[in-house]
Design goal:
Layout (H helix, E strand, L loop, with lengths): L10 E4 L3 H13 L7 E4 L5 H8 L3 E2 L11 E4 L6 H5 L11 E4 L6 H8 L4 E6 L8 E6 L3 H11 L3 E5 L6 H28 L4 H18 L5 H8 L5 H9 L4 H21 L1
Parallel strand pairs: 1-2, 1-4, 2-3, 4-5, 5-6, 7-8
Antiparallel strand pairs: 6-7
The structure holds NADP nicotinamide-adenine-dinucleotide phosphate (NAP).
NADP nicotinamide-adenine-dinucleotide phosphate binds next to helix 1.
């Protein structure tokens, strides 16, 4: 096969679980990958794969078909990738790019287990399913990085990481951040209840307020967004000053992110 064919060749998705299905849905929603360019490998029947099949994707094609693939997106559990990839690698074109979305499996580990394929690591959130995800990208190889970006940019705010080690920090912020936000919402509701609201009303107010704040955030500077609500001498300013007294909010989030980074490193070791 001529090398140039790979530039527009098919993309293989290996694994259609929680993240794999979200990626597939995002590609179909945004058109980032045409269904006719998609091959999906999945041991069990998955609704997302069936939806893609109905639009022209191939599900579990004969392994010979993988030879045309320009990218192989590896979305299986980190403990399984070696056994999953072993039967596939004899069929891959030597110019194909391995796109790993697995947490904690480093590029040197992948290269040692797979061989010489260019590797790009991408850490996406499941928000890609709605075309509104976040993805951190790292690759030593510029062409592999460009391919990783091209696959995720249409459905995610995509950032390049300068160093592979930063993947753990990016995961601690972006991968875990939604859970921190939900925990903050819960704590705000509990604080509202402590201030006298009934629990259900406090939760409705906290949820609705933070949803609407997230919608309104856009790209404006965070200081400007805060200043618009917290006028000097007002009640919001009093609340913020309490929240940040002795830098406690910043310190708490530094500890939170550091704990998640540590855990990411332990799991990848
Ligand atoms: N979930 C997230 O939010 C998230 C975020 C960032 C990164 N990740 C990474 O994404 C990867 C997948 O996570 P997940 O949450 O999507 O896990 P998951 O829901 O368990 O999905 C893994 C999928 O791999 C499939 N699989 C197993 N053996 C296979 C094979 N031989 N060929 C093809 N597929 C095979 C499984 O299929 P069956 O269901 O048929 O067994 C399963 O659906 C992990 O490495 C994780 O670190 C996940």
């Amino acid at each position: 096969m001529p090398e140039s064919a790979l530039a527009d060749g098919p993309v293989v998705l290996v694994g259609c679980g929680r993240l794999g299905a979200a990626i597939l849905e995002g590609w179909l929603l945004t058109g980032a990958v045409a269904p006719s360019d998609l091959m999906i490998l999945s041991p069990s029947r998955k609704p997302a794969a069936e939806a893609a099949r109905a639009k022209g994707a191939r599900v579990n094609p004969p392994l010979e078909a993988l030879t045309a693939a320009r990218a192989v997106v590896l979305a299986v559990k980190p403990a399984l990738w070696r056994q999953v990839m072993a039967p596939l690698t004899p069929f891959l074109h030597d110019q194909a790019v391995i796109v790993s979305v697995m947490a904690g499996v480093t590029a040197p580990t992948l290269a040692e287990g797979l061989g010489g394929w260019p590797i790009v690591r991408v850490m996406p959130t499941t928000g890609v399913a709605r075309g509104r995800g976040v993805a951190s990208v790292w690759a030593a190889d510029a062409a592999a990085r460009a391919l990783g970006r091209a696959l995720f940019e249409p459905m995610a705010e995509t950032v390049d990481l300068a160093d592979e080690d930063l993947m753990d920090a990016a995961t601690a912020v972006a991968g875990s951040g939604a859970a921190y936000f939900y925990a903050f919402t819960q704590a705000l509701a509990e604080a509202g209840a402590k201030a006298g609201l009934d629990a259900a009303t406090a939760e409705t107010l906290a949820r609705a307020t933070l949803k609407s704040a997230a919608d309104a955030m856009g790209d404006e500077a965070l200081d400007a967004l805060i200043a618009r609500i917290a006028s000097p001498g007002g009640s919001t300013r009093a609340g913020l000053e309490s929240m940040q007294s002795d830098g406690r909010l910043t310190a708490m989030l530094e500890d939170t992110v550091a704990a998640a980074v540590r855990r990411n490193r332990e799991m990848g070791a």
